[in-house]
Amino acid sequence: MTNEEAGEIIDTILAAYPRTTFGAGQIKVWARFLKDKSYQQCLRNLTYHIENNPFPPSIAEVVNNKEVAKIEKEKVIERSRTLDAERNKWVDEHGTIDGFEQYWNSEFEPKFRG
Fold first, then answer.
1. pLDDT of residue 6
2. Class of the 3-64 domain?
3. pLDDT 10s digits, 29-46
4. Any residues with CB less than 8 A from the CB of 2 and at least 6 apart, and which?
């Protein structure tokens, strides 16, 4: 992640937890640990933390939130099971796989993106 993105993470923490302060040393430490991480993943972890915790997160909770990873894994498993079931149902009803991809992309894929 860029320094600007790391700053956005820190700004979000400060906005969500107004009694929290970051000194220059803390900002450097956070930036050092965030720089090699995915901004999107850290933002998801931070969002989860803010929604579920009254206290500010540690660096570890922002860069590696096991609850978020568990939720994302469960979503992947659910998507895979749904895909298999719907594909089998499609083939049973239509006798071919033709047209299934378009059906899946319009009816189901949006549910798993959001």
1. 95
2. mainly alpha
3. 999 999 999 999 999 999
4. 39
